[in-house]
Design goal:
By secondary structure, this protein is of the alpha/beta class. The protein has four domains: about 120 residues, Periplasmic binding protein-like II (D-Maltodextrin-Binding Protein, domain 2, 3-Layer(aba) Sandwich); about 100 residues, D-Maltodextrin-Binding Protein, domain 2 (3-Layer(aba) Sandwich); about 120 residues, D-Maltodextrin-Binding Protein, domain 2 (3-Layer(aba) Sandwich), CATH 3.40.190; about 100 residues, Periplasmic binding protein-like II (D-Maltodextrin-Binding Protein, domain 2). The protein is built from 18 helices and 21 strands. The strands form three sheets. Strands 1, 2, 3, 4, 5, 6, 7, 8, 9 and 10 form a ten-stranded mixed beta sheet that branches. A six-stranded mixed beta sheet has the order 12-11-13-20-14-21, sandwiched between helices. The protein has a five-stranded mixed beta sheet with strand order 17-16-18-15-19.
Length: about 500
């Protein structure tokens, strides 16, 4: 009898656990679902406006934003090392410039400015009128770590000598927000250097700003950048554009001086037309100037999205019709064919020769694809799923029966030829398979060995969306890309011109 009772309670217990588990699973499935998760690397000084912007954006898009706050220098270092970064928002554009020079960013958008200011403790009742007043024995100043933007700009403005004078009289904090908190709460801290925008926050409103001539002119220019190695480049670009074009009022409320490009535009009787162009990364140098001229002549805005064609095609297959591009310019017919149902009949504009790029003088004596299998070589190729370059390279290696020999030397698979060439220039690779257009801007430093296999000069087709709301306008844009002036730009960039009369 006892065994029957025990069995009954055991079965009942298991049933309860199963039912509870199923209920939890159903609740989890009914919770908020996100198509993509973006990682934002953001300076601590921008935490308050960003904390307000993110819920606003997430409520409009099926995107989750995760933020990594920190010092701008630390964020930049992490950006170079990390593989989970989509958007970069430091406190000053000097870090944006560094990231751009290191080939870490794609598009950059302006946001606002803020100025350095001296603040004093609410209970501080002594006068501070000049830099020399901060060097008195009875004064204690809080400053941010040199890795923070405010410290970098202050040191650059004052000079190392004046900054060194502060050392006996200052306490170094990690981030500028910690400086503000220390001045507010620590009675041993008399003053600190923070951003004037912070004074709009209830956390720091009780601090008193003091103007001293030596700090005047220390201004940070805030910009937001899309990370080149983002795994969600289109969503990252959309978020950066949203912050730049649609959040000026939020930034202003938090004390930032909003740049004209980031100020929300007043309502207009007729909105400016916007068309979206998706194009393979390699086409950027050939068409960007033509797109700019078209914008000016037609009075329209062109939303450009450059990336590996594999990434672009994947995005188009999952996007809502309203989010798809008006025009697609592909690096190779293979990727155009994958979305041909979305577009009118395509036409070929250009071709681009596949080459093996090596350092000037060809130190490893590479003459053909099979030489990429030489022992000890570090080789870079395109990613076969993310870009046309990678797919074409893989096919050529298979056809030439060199894949097995070369594969062991491939240490990098990149979504674009530009990234491969950049690594070749830095010395981290010995040879890369890229397009002649990738090598063209660096002819003084690199040699290009033509790949002689069949079909090693892929064609670039262009097509207009069947769903575009501006068919006549987009047709005129295609005509501009077909023009004689455009042809010169293609040929100057290293492309062959294939458009048939």
């Amino acid at each position: 009898m006892f065994s029957r009772v025990n069995s009954f309670w055991m079965i009942l217990g298991v049933s309860i656990v199963l039912v509870g588990g199923l209920a939890a699973l159903m609740l989890w499935k009914e919770g908020p679902q996100h198509d993509e998760i973006l990682i934002l690397h953001c300076a601590a000084a921008l935490k308050e406006p960003i904390d307000e912007i993110i819920p606003l954006y997430e409520s409009q898009k099926k995107v989750k934003i995760e933020v990594r706050y920190g010092k701008s220098h630390t964020l930049l270092t992490n950006l170079a090392l990390s593989h989970d970064a989509d958007v970069f928002l430091p406190a000053d554009d000097s870090y944006i410039k560094e990231a751009t020079e290191k080939n870490l960013l794609n598009d950059v958008y302006p946001l606002a400015t803020m100025n350095a200011t001296l603040v004093v403790n609410p209970g501080f009742n002594k006068s501070v009128n000049a830099w020399s007043d901060l060097l008195q024995k009875d004064k204690m100043l809080a400053v941010a770590n040199p890795g923070a933007a405010i410290a970098r700009l202050t040191i650059a403005h004052l000079g190392p000598t004046r900054w060194q004078q502060l050392h006996p009289h200052c306490v170094e904090m990690g981030e500028v927000t910690q400086v503000g908190l220390a001045v507010k709460t620590d009675k041993n801290i008399d003053a600190g250097i923070i951003w004037d925008a912070m004074l709009a926050s209830p956390n720091y409103q009780m601090l008193k700003a003091v103007k001293i001539p030596e700090l005047e002119g220390i201004t940070a220019t805030v910009k937001i950048g899309v990370v080149k190695k983002s795994t969600h480049p289109i969503a990252a670009q959309a978020f950066a554009q949203f912050v730049s074009a649609g959040c000026g009022d939020i930034l202003a409320k938090h004390g930032f001086k909003v740049t004209s490009a980031a100020k929300p535009e007043p309502p207009k009787t007729s909105e400016k037309t916007v068309i979206t162009v998706y194009a393979g990364s390699m086409l950027r140098p050939a068409i960007d100037e033509t797109l700019k001229e078209f914008e000016q002549s037609e009075g329209v805005t062109i939303n450009r999205v450059y990336n590996g064609c594999g990434i672009l095609v994947s995005a188009m297959k999952t996007q809502e019709p309203t989010d798809r591009p008006d025009l697609y310019f592909s690096c190779d017919p293979t990727f155009m064919n994958q979305v041909e149902s979305l577009f009118d009949r395509s036409k070929v504009i250009s071709k681009n020769q596949l080459v093996i790029a090596v350092p000037k003088g060809n130190p490893h004596g590479i003459k053909s694809l099979k030489d990429l299998g030489k022992e000890g070589l570090k080789v870079g190729v395109g990613h076969e799923q993310q870009c046309a370059l990678g797919l074409i390279t893989q096919n050529v290696l298979i056809r030439s029966k060199t894949l097995k020999a070369v594969e062991g030397n491939i240490v990098v698979r990149s979504p674009s030829g530009d990234l491969l060439v950049n690594q070749l220039l830095t010395g981290s690779l010995d040879a890369v398979v890229a397009y002649v257009t990738n090598v063209k801007p660096n002819e003084d430093k690199l040699d290009a060995i033509k790949v002689e296999e069949v079909n090693c000069a892929p064609l670039q087709p262009i097509a207009i969306s069947k769903e575009t709301k501006h068919p006549e306008l987009v047709k005129r844009l295609v005509k501009a890309i077909e023009s004689a002036q455009s042809k010169e730009r293609f040929e100057k960039s290293g492309f062959g011109w294939e458009l048939q009369p």
